[in-house]
Amino acid sequence: MENIDSNDSELWNQIQEQFSKLKIQNGLNPDEDYDKQLEEMFGLSQEDFDELDRQAEIMMNTKKIKVSMIDESAVFPKYAYLTDSGFDVHSTIEVLVPPFGKALIPTGLKVSFDEGYEIQIRTKSGLAINQGIIVLNSPGTVDQGYSGEIKVPIFNTNPTPFVITKGMKVAQAVLCPVVNGRYVKFEDVNEIEDKDRGSNGFGSTGI
């Protein structure tokens, strides 16, 4: 079966709702005879219906990130694996990062996404363990209201210089749900009630 688009997904949901209403009205149960009737009516097997359900669920849970590439060296984002949480962002310049020094790396990307989310910029594990290069403020935050270019602050943990090359993967970006300031209210109170952890902070749970 071919993939369905968002319009097909909406139509399938409407069909399912109508059948649910008909079942209730006629006192039907989803038994084998009922499944066969559906197969005959639509010319689809039960496996096809299961696949439609799966694709409809994917469509309903899919989030969209609009991407504008503002540099000819920019690399359009993609996930290496569909099960990955983050996608790579690449440098559009070549720059030498001094020992124990830092640099701000442009990616040539501007993004737009729905309210209720942020993009977190995180260190790539391979770059950290193999090269000692990390994102200085990991995780960095791209707010939903920010419309400028994504730039990555890089820190070189080595006693020797490190060259960031054009097109190099410098960080990973993760779309994350977040409660933004529109939905947070600060309340001024005289004191905060005690909780089970109390003031036990850094190192209080041992190592």
3D structure, described in words:
There is one protein chain. By secondary structure, the protein is an alpha+beta fold. It has 2 domains: 6-61, no CATH class; 66-182, Deoxyuridine triphosphatase (dUTPase) (Deoxyuridine 5'-Triphosphate Nucleotidohydrolase, Chain A), CATH 2.70.40. Helices cover 27% and strands 25% of the residues. It contains 4 helices and 11 strands; from the N terminus they run αααββββββαβββββ. It has helices spanning 6-26, 32-42, 46-61, 125-131; strands at 66-69, 86-90, 95-97, 102-106, 109-112, 117-122, 133-135, 140-142, 151-156, 162-164, 169-177. The strands form 4 sheets. A 4-stranded antiparallel sheet has the order 2-11-6-8, with no helix packed on it. The chain is extended, with a radius of gyration of 25 Å. The model has no long low-confidence stretch (mean pLDDT 85).
What distinguishing features does this structure have?
single chain, 207 residues, alpha+beta, Deoxyuridine 5'-Triphosphate Nucleotidohydrolase, Chain A, 2 domains, 3-stranded antiparallel β-sheet, 4 helices, 11 strands, 25% strand, extended
Rg to the nearest angstrom?
Answer: 25 Å
Which regions have little confidence, pLDDT < 50, spanning 5+ residues? none
Query: Span from first to last CA?
Result: 53 Å
How large a portion of the residues is in β-strands, by DSSP E?
15-25%
CATH superfamily placement of the largest domain: Deoxyuridine triphosphatase (dUTPase)
Q: How many structural units, i.e. domains?
A: 2
- Named at the architecture level, the CATH assignment of the largest domain is Distorted Sandwich
> Can you count the beta strands?
11
Name of the top-level CATH class of the largest domain: Mainly Beta
Order of SSEs, N→C?
Answer: HHHEEEEEEHEEEEE
Please work out how many helical segments DSSP would assign. 4
Structural class: alpha+beta
Biggest sheet, in brief? 4 strands, antiparallel
- The average pLDDT is 85
Shape: extended
Helix content: 25-40%
What name is given to the CATH topology of the largest domain?
Deoxyuridine 5'-Triphosphate Nucleotidohydrolase, Chain A
Task: Strand order, main sheet: write it out.
Answer: 2-11-6-8
